[in-house]
Design goal:
Layout: H1 5-34, E1 38-39, E2 42-47, E3 50-56, H2 61-64, E4 72-76, E5 79-80, H3 84-94, E6 99-106, E7 109-116, E8 118-119, H4 124-147, H5 154-169, H6 178-204, H7 210-214, H8 218-221, H9 224-237, H10 250-279, H11 283-312, H12 319-323, H13 330-341, H14 347-382, H15 388-418, H16 420-438, H17 442-446
Helix pairs in contact: 1-5, 4-5, 4-13, 5-6, 6-9, 6-10, 9-10, 10-11, 11-13, 14-15, 15-16
């Protein structure tokens, strides 16, 4: 066990940081459940004609009220609206389920309409799923750190998982108090840091790539694009730098830039692993990289293709785009297993065995309860004087006696079906051992 003071200090710092972030994540989740942001289903922007409906959500309050994209907003509840921020502030102030009257203009013709403000969904189900994904990242990273804390890249992997936890779990409510702003900037920091950590990890796992071995300064350069994107976000959000786009589009534009940066780095990490796999000559190393590479592609390819690219091209996230985030959980599972095992020669066997044992367990559970029900009915009809509790006790005893033989039989059948080579080897060895121990004649035994 290491006694390096710097190592202990780093570990303690990571533990305290993790504890603080977990508390923040728990409070943030509670706040999102308690606070609802009102919305009219329109993204308002400022144009030469005035405050204009840029995107109208299909099926939303504005869509049901007859508001179309391109309509100009003049007043809300009789109060004039001159900027998009004024419209947003009035909607927030009125609150959810308020009846609101809009005065608008379409093709130069004024008209009035009314709508009921609704709570912004913010893709609630997907948001909850991403929170679960972020929690899984943290749990897997913590397990790896405690299980193999001396393994190479274990701390790097944990920091990547901790950053992913913040990225996928933290989401500001829109209340924009001190806590909400803290959550917002933590999420921005995670968005900037996570892709660079991932690419750095891919270039140094399981071995440092030749490019980084010869030019160690390149590892620092990996983080510079993220630092530039983060600096741009700060300058724009603090009105130090003004982008040549309408004010209402600025957050959306920053999000598109950040997600494009994330998608490019994810793709670069997968390509780095693919190149390492293609150039690996050591059979053990090649087998190590096989499953890591495949798991990485399965995790990031749908997300890059169906979310990052359309979002960067201007598509508003919808249901089929959000579903692409479902595969992100494959990433920590793949790398986590790689770090724990170090040698991945058995990973395909583990996958097949895990699948086969899952199938066997499901069959056994079903058979177990079926046997309980069968014997309970049998004893109840044959021995009516026995109490119901006694019937279940007897049924459980009989089922418990039969349970292990059934387990062995199903596992043998599954092994024979999924792993015939290993099953044949094992059966041959067992038969040989049984014959060897039962043979009493010395000459036959020697033969």
């Amino acid at each position: 066990m290491t006694t390096n003071p710097a190592f202990r200090l780093t570990t303690l710092s990571l533990a305290l940081l993790s504890l603080v972030l977990v508390v923040f994540g728990f409070v943030d989740y509670q706040q999102r459940g308690m606070y609802q942001v009102a919305g009219d289903g329109v993204s308002w922007i400022e144009t030469a004609q005035g405050v204009t409906a840029w995107i109208v959500v299909r099926g939303g309050p504005a869509d049901r009220a007859g508001i179309h994209e391109g309509d100009q907003l003049r007043a809300i509840n009789g109060q004039a609206v001159t900027t998009a921020s004024e419209a947003v502030q009035q909607i927030y102030r009125l609150g959810v389920w308020s009846l609101v009257s809009y005065n608008l203009t379409r093709n130069g013709e004024p008209f009035d309409t009314s709508l009921v403000l609704e709570a912004q969904s913010n893709a609630g189900s997907v948001r909850n799923y991403l929170a679960i994904v972020g929690l899984l990242y943290l749990l897997i990273g913590t397990f790896i750190l405690f299980r193999r804390w001396t393994a190479r890249k274990s701390r790097h992997f944990y920091i990547f998982c901790l950053t992913s936890f913040v990225l996928y779990t933290f989401s500001y409510t829109g209340r924009l108090n001190l806590f909400d702003w803290t959550v917002y900037w933590l999420n921005v920091a995670a968005t900037i840091l996570q892709p660079a950590l991932f690419l750095h990890f891919c270039l140094t796992f399981p071995e440092r790539s030749k490019l980084l071995r010869d030019r160690r300064y390149l590892a620092v350069l990996l983080y510079l694009p993220g630092a530039f994107v983060g600096l741009l976000h700060i300058l724009v959000s603090q009105d130090i730098l003004v982008l040549p786009v309408p004010l209402q589009q600025v957050p959306w534009l920053l999000d598109r830039i950040e997600y494009f940066y994330l998608g490019v780095y994810f793709l670069a990490g997968a390509l780095a692993l693919q190149l390492a796999y293609a150039h690996a000559r050591d059979p053990v190393l090649k087998n190590q990289l096989k499953w890591v590479t495949r798991g990485t592609w399965v995790a990031i390819a749908p997300f890059d293709a169906f979310y990052v690219l359309p979002y960067f091209c201007g598509f508003v996230p919808n249901a089929w785009m959000n579903v692409s985030a479902l595969t992100l959980v494959v990433l920590p599972v793949t790398f986590g297993y790689a770090i724990v095992r170090n040698r991945l020669m058995d990973v395909d066997i583990i996958f097949r065995r895990g699948f086969s044992y899952t199938l066997a367990t499901a069959g056994i559970v079903g058979l177990y309860f079926a046997v309980i029900a069968l014997f309970a009915d049998l004893f109840r009809s044959t021995f009516p004087l026995i109490s119901s509790r006694g019937v279940w006790v007897v049924a459980l005893v009989i089922t418990g006696i039969l349970f292990q033989p059934v387990v062995n039989y199903i596992q043998q059948w599954v092994d024979r079906f999924f792993n015939p080579e290993r099953y044949d080897y094992r059966r041959t060895l067992l038969e040989f051992a049984r014959e060897l121990t039962s043979e009493l004649h010395v000459d036959t035994l020697l033969q």
